[in-house]
Design brief:
This protein is α+β, with helices and mostly antiparallel strands. Helices cover 31% and strands 23% of the residues. It contains 14 helices and 20 strands. The strands form five sheets. It has an eight-stranded antiparallel beta sheet, sandwiched between helices. A five-stranded antiparallel beta sheet has the order 6-7-11-9-10. Strand 6 and strand 7 form a beta hairpin. Helix 2 runs antiparallel to helix 6 and helix 10 runs antiparallel to helix 11. It is globular, with a radius of gyration of 21 Å.
Length: 431
């Protein structure tokens, strides 16, 4: 297919590739890669950076979806790389297994969340990349490798979070655990009290996060903890897909208010207080793969940085103070989570327990003032950017933040000397 335009989920990234190829199997995929000058293989388009954009060959991996195998004894499960997350949980559940953690959106593909270092929350829990047990990848020359800690260990170490720069994954094996249920608790807490109790809230809950609308004085807190309480029968994969696509009346109203806020700054304080009051849901018990994600149908653009965990509270306070003092308009809350350290070369959590701070802006609103203000503060707190979310870090800055940055660049050049898997965005920071 030639001449088609590709767009990411938010509409903030668009490209017009020379051709879009849809291989039916690994043989066709390897041939497409060998024959292309440049290649990118986007998943669901849930990255807000141009990481998946291409003016060359764009590969659609729709044929590489579905369950492959699972082993309860080994605690692993293998999926085709383009399997959407909403389809992973129901299949695993049928085999008595579940992922150890997930984020709050399940629209991405498995390869997408692995390749960008996407994460959930939990002080003892790692991101998706760190829970990869192995993967199968097609290289720039068309060769296919199986990678794990014993086979091709260097590509395994780097490839678990590689933004698609080492090749195209076709299968991914994840560490899994026995199925479990989670009890969700939501509550409002004044921000002064929240910061006094934050360490306690993080350590006493398996998962804890909060959402702070910056013109409000209370934050919306959410905790998830394992329970033996009964949960409803799990939804099917199709039911999970539909759940994430249906807009509630609250989301319709939220979108409408976000359309107005840039033109009515006097509404910021009352709107943020109202959003905070209405956002907490009721307590409930669900199977883990249903408890983690929530429908997110209001489109936005996002910036997220990981800072050393101990510096997270001060970083967030400075961000909110800057938004208020500069009277920056935003209709979204700031999301605060924690993630455990890992050993993945380009992971934002490499050898560092972290707090993540995510700022969002409605998709029709210019992100410049909000994101530039926040990014300058993140830089002062040793922030590492989420690879799938907006940032403007350059190669020199990234090298100072990621201890394995130089080793990754060297491996990338060795495995793809012509830069076949680079686009303009990636070439600027990794060539």
């Amino acid at each position: 297919m030639a001449g088609a335009t590709w767009s990411n989920w938010s509409g903030g990234v668009r490209c017009k590739p020379m051709q879009i190829v849809t291989p039916k199997d690994e043989v066709e995929l390897a041939a497409a890669i060998r024959n292309a000058d440049t290649v990118r293989a986007p998943g669901s388009g849930h990255s807000f950076t141009p990481v998946a954009a291409s003016d060359g060959t764009l590969i659609k991996l729709s044929a590489f979806s579905g369950f492959r195998r699972a082993s309860a004894q080994e605690g692993t499960a293998t999926f085709a790389a383009a399997t959407p997350l909403w389809a992973v949980g129901p299949v695993l559940h049928a085999h008595g297994l579940a992922l150890k953690n997930m984020g709050d959106i399940d629209r991405q593909t498995l390869a997408g969340v692995v390749s960008t270092g996407t994460h959930g929350t939990g002080a003892t829990l790692r991101n998706f990349s760190a829970e990869v047990a192995g993967f199968r990848i097609v290289l720039a020359n068309g060769d296919v490798l199986n990678c794990d800690r014993s086979q091709n260990p260097e590509i395994f170490a780097a490839g678990r979070c590689s933004l698609g720069m080492l090749g195209v994954m076709t299968e991914i094996t994840m560490h899994a655990r026995p199925v479990y249920r989670l009890h969700e608790t939501n509550f409002l807490m004044g921000t002064d009290e929240l910061f006094r109790k934050l360490d306690q809230l993080i350590t006493r809950n398996r998962h804890f996060e909060f959402f702070w609308f910056p013109y409000a004085d209370r934050a919306v807190c959410k905790a998830l903890n394992e329970t033996q309480e009964a949960a409803p029968e799990p939804r099917s994969a199709e039911e999970m897909r539909k759940r994430g696509e249906n807009s509630s009346s609250d989301e319709v109203a939220f979108s409408a208010i976000n359309e107005v806020l840039p033109y009515a700054p006097f509404l910021l304080k009352p709107a943020h207080r109202l959003f905070s009051q209405l956002m907490p849901g009721t307590g409930k018990v669900r199977w883990s793969h249903e408890a983690f994600p929530s429908p997110r149908t209001v489109r936005f653009n996002e910036m997220e940085y990981a800072v050393p965990r101990e510096k997270g509270p001060d970083c967030l306070k400075e961000i909110v103070a800057a938004i208020r003092s500069r009277k920056i308009s935003t209709g979204f809350p700031i999301e605060y989570r924690t993630v455990a350290a890992d050993d993945v070369w380009l992971s934002p959590f490499y050898q560092r327990d972290s707090a993540t701070i995510a700022v969002h802006q409605y998709h029709r609103v210019d992100t410049t003032r909000l994101f530039e203000t926040c990014e300058a503060i993140f830089a002062r707190y040793e922030g590492r950017p989420h690879w799938g979310k907006r940032h403007t870090r350059n190669a020199q800055q990234l090298e100072s933040l990621y201890p394995k940055y130089g080793a990754f660049r060297a491996l990338r050049r060795y495995s793809d000397p012509r830069g076949k898997f680079l686009n303009e965005h990636l070439r600027a920071i990794f060539e």
